[in-house]
Structure formats: C-alpha cells, structure tokens
Amino acid sequence: MSSSIAxxxxxxxxxxxxxxxxxxxxxxxxxNEIGVDNFTLREVARRANVSPAAPYHHFLDKQDLIRTLxxxxxxxxxxxxxxxxxxxxxxxxxxxxxxxxYVMFAYEHHAExxxxxxxxxxxxxxxxxxxxxxxxxxxxxxxxxxxxxQVVKKIMTSDAKNISLMLWSVVHGLSTILLxxxxxxxxxxxxxxxMARIVVQQAIQGILSKE
Amino acid sequence: MSSSIAxxxxxxxxxxxxxxxxxxxxxxxxxNEIGVDNFTLREVARRANVSPAAPYHHFLDKQDLIRTLxxxxxxxxxxxxxxxxxxxxxxxxxxxxxxxxYVMFAYEHHAExxxxxxxxxxxxxxxxxxxxxxxxxxxxxxxxxxxxxQVVKKIMTSDAKNISLMLWSVVHGLSTILLxxxxxxxxxxxxxxxMARIVVQQAIQGILSKE
DNA sequence: CTTAAATTCTGAACAGTGTTAAGATATGCT
DNA sequence: AGCATATCTTAACACTGTTCAGAATTTAAG
Lengths: 211, 211
Hints:
Chain A is mainly alpha-helical. Helix content of chain A is 64%, strand content 0%.
C-alpha cells in the first residue's frame, strides 16, 4: 500500500485509511469555525465524508474525541512554551516570554484552548489520566523555569509552588478573559500581546525580593 | 388574588403565576447539579411541571434563559464584591478581600460562573448590552478600589487600568483553574480560600512601589 | 355582567443530535 | 485460498431545541 501521505488520491475508498486523524483535523477546523458549543460529531463525520456512526470505531464517544483533541492541544502548548523559553535569556526573561506565549497560544487556538479546560473531561479518579499528565507537563515548563530562577539568583520571595500557581493564574485568566468576555470582540493579536506583556511583567514584579 | 409568596399552594393551576422566576430557579439548580454542558431546557421545564414549549413565552430561547441567568449572577457577584470591600479596611486590604471574594464566588456558584463567561453570549455589537453592563459593574468595584488606593497613597506603580486588568486576570484565572482543571476534584472551600489569599497577596505585591 | 382581546399554557410536530445494533465491505493473516 | 478482524454503512432509538395551532385562563372594555 502507498504511504500515509496519499490521503486524497482515492477518496471513494470504503476504508478511509487514516480516518482517525482526518476526524481530528476536521474537528479542530469545525470547532474553530462555529465555536465549541455548537460543535457536532455528526458534522465532523460529514466533513470527513463518512457516516455518523463511523467515528465510533475510533473514539468511544464525542467526549473521547474532544478529550483526544485536548491532549494534543496540551502537547502543542508545551512545545510552544518550551520554544518561548529561549536559552539565551535569563530565567526571569524566560518567565515573561513563557507567560506571553501562553496567552498567545490561547488567542490563536481558541477552540482547542476551550476544550482543554472543561470540568467534564476531568477523569473520575486514579490511574495516570493522559489529559492530566499532558496538563502537568505544560505546567512543568513554567515551574522548572521558576526553579532555575531561584537557583541562579535568590530572587524569589515565596516558594516555587505558590509562584507557579500565581503566574499560571494570571496568564490563564487573561487568556479566558480575552476569549470569553466582550473584549474578545475588539481584541487583536497585537493588543492581546500587549496586554499579556503588561500583565505578566506586573505579576513577575510581585515575586521579586525587594532590595 | 393572593400575594406572590403563595407559589406552592395550588400547583395544579393552568396559569402558573410566576413561571419565569420558577424556571430561572430550576435552571440554576439543574446547572449546579448536572453541569453546564448537559444543561437542558426541557429538563428545566420538567422540573417546573410545565410543557417543553412553556419557557418560550418567557424567554426567546435557551440562550436567552442562560443570558438572564448570567446577568443575575453578575449582579450577585457585584454585591458580593461590595460586601467584601469593608469600609474599615485600608484600600489595599480591600483589594485583597475583593480578590478572595471573587474566587470564592466562583467556587460556590460554579455553574452560574461558567454561564457568565461564554463567548456565545457576547452580543453582536452596539447598544448597551445588559450582560456587558452587568460585567462592567462588577469590574468597577475592583477598579474603584484601585483608584482609591492610588489617591490615598501614591502606592501603585502602573496605571489603574493595567493594575485592574492584572488583578482581574489572577482571580479569574485561579477561579477557572479551580473549576475546570483536575484540581477541582480535590479542592475544598478552605483550600480554595487559602490559594486565593496567597495568589492575591503575591499579585498585589507586584503593584506596590518599592521604597 | 358580558364579551372581546390578550396572555399563558399544552400537544403535536419537525429537524437535528448522540449513540447503538446488525449487517456489508474491505484488509490482514495463515 | 479462506477466515478472522477491522472498518464502514444503514436504520433505528431516545432525546433535544424550537415552532405552531389551538385550549385555558386572565384582563380589559363596553
């Protein structure tokens, strides 16, 4: 058989070949188009030229599809944060860049970002939930940078966990405000970035030890 | 006819008497029970002992009902913040109390809080949208306190708008993290309050001028 | 008081949804 | 080759939001 690159060569095949990924991509597009609330599994199937029941051979149910999307999104966020954390900068500058990158990720992937944080997706309990792990991995980028900053310079007052929670809260809060409040109607990428910079810089000020 | 207090005296009346409020209350309960995603207008009607079409005589559609709920919730939030802002404290203490109150409001009214921030509810444009107004009113409690703090003591570095955005972001971020992340499974009212205090105190540190 | 108008509710219906079950079609293995 | 398995379709179920015609009730007008 041909490699997985040739997806659109023969679209009328009974077996799609790579339906799972096609569904995921269609789902991302749909969510970004019509929003998260009207998001429909049947429409996803429609866009993949497939019957409404087909997705159930690749996902347990609609929520499982969304869950998969959320996990992928967390991984993309993790790499985005790691990329923002350039080695050439000081830990404090890295913190600022990570914070801004978080907000920009939310702004540029609003639908996926909304899927990432839904109480309904939080697993019942126990077992290493992949979604939870992916979320912790993303947080670790921020957390580790804080640790590094503390080691290099004794610059932080409170302990790393509190600092992390606080910085995470600011950037996450600004992100959701930008997406879910009336601001979303007038916000642009530039204004979002500007707000992110201002807010993050202020927040970092709060964790510096006064000299 | 009797006063509006006697709601449950004659439950079999064709005309309910105060269906609109009954629907709103049933909706609040339902949302807090089964969450925001599975929230169903038909179930609301069912709980009000009324046909599925009855709500349409009091609300344009499901979204209009949710919108009404969100507006009410914003007003409740506003009074909660005003109550937290006790006159006896200094403006800075007031800021701290307001921030904590915000987080606790979210924790105690999770379903309503989620209804308050939904991109879908943001009106198309123009005209004084009551939801937007209610949101601004709530923000004003925080904003005015910042202004007062700046007047009493020249204690803030950045300007009030930036400070407000930053503080709003922290408390809003922590709120949604507490509600929508895996933390929600283990969080209690006490742990939430503790986190709120820590995070808000750190954030306020960031806006104090260094002496 | 009578009667017309307006309000509030019901019942039945429509399209659309998530999901399942039974069967058709293709793929992979031996 | 043939058999098991994975993948897809068709049909159906219960449920949803919403509309519409009409019944029950309240309000207002004569």
